[in-house]
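In this supplementary section we document a worked example of the pipeline. Step one takes a protein sequence of length 378 as its only input; no multiple sequence alignment statistics are reported here. Step two produces a three-dimensional model, which step three serialises into structure tokens for compact storage. The input and output of this example are shown verbatim.
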Amino acid sequence: VGGTTTHYIRGAAGETIAVYENGSREFINLIGPGGDMIGTWDGSQRRYFLKDHLGSIRTTVDQSGNVDGYDDYYAFGLVMPGRSSNSANPADNYKFTGHELDQVAGTDLNLYHANARSYDPVTGRFLQIDPYAAKFPNVSPYVYALNNPLAFLDPDGRIPITFHIRSFAPFNYFGGLFHGDGANRGFSRSQSVTSRVKQSFTLETSTGGLSDISTTSDPSGHLVFYGNPTADPSGSVDVTRTNFTDDFNSIGVGAEYAGANPFIPGSPDIDVFSSLSIVEDTKNGTLTISGALTGDNFPSTEAFVQDASGASLFLGVGFYEGSPFSSLAGKNRRNIAEFNLTIHTNKDGNFTGVTFNDKRYTLEEWNSFFENANPHGN
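The serialised model returned by step three reads:
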């Protein structure tokens, strides 16, 4: 662009590690768990990204916590004029959903590089055909996120599945008058319910790529103490193995999270460890997901997976045992849930049913087993 030659050094999953312009290194990207870019380093100053639920970079801060830049976006990723400023941020080209925004030489066209395809935020369309267009004959091969960019992501122009693992307290109050997530909080796939700790990540089954890794908590409360602080849990997600053939894609994923009561410094964490095996049969259109959840087994735990259309189904749930006083101390590896099920997909790649123990269920039938279960015990 403008006589500048740019070279990229990329990792095995395609993530940008460093950028050179005209032979000189401009910056190195700081890569977090699962290949998620968390900031940049120009050799003297580190800058960190604060992202929203879509992975879009909303604010950039320096290593002292000073704001160097910020951006607001329209729904399909166009930067809002007058509501963005990056004058102090030399690496301000990473924006909507964390992708790089680049100006096409000799034009006024700004495109996001979404790995498999280029994306235009003005029209909300990709410029290349979806490599999996045959699975979506009723959807334009250029469409972004099924035309619903506030709810869905298209991290690299392919078909993703998203995993959700959550720990929730099915009580009004517990552990010394601390607010729980409500006595009526059962096992749920809703995005509007609260949880003490929750983790989600998106997996591309054809490449083993991870994106949109998030470990968060909802606000806490107490019957007497003032305020509603939010815990700052830690988490990680890593691909542990991959094997790709013409008919099968096999991927192993290991994940974990830990989060403590924000009212009490030094209180023990809620710990959950996830071990997942995903085998995609591309010929027959199935996903076999097996694995286990281990950890403290307090409070209750739920895990489910979501397709690109928003349909979701439970993988497994854990009924809590003990109390925060007896169950949380240490890094426990108690059994929470084990699962091994085959998910059927249609020609669009969306979930249509589940086979478990040689019996097939509709999504409604399968999910009802868990939604009707009492999280206080089996």
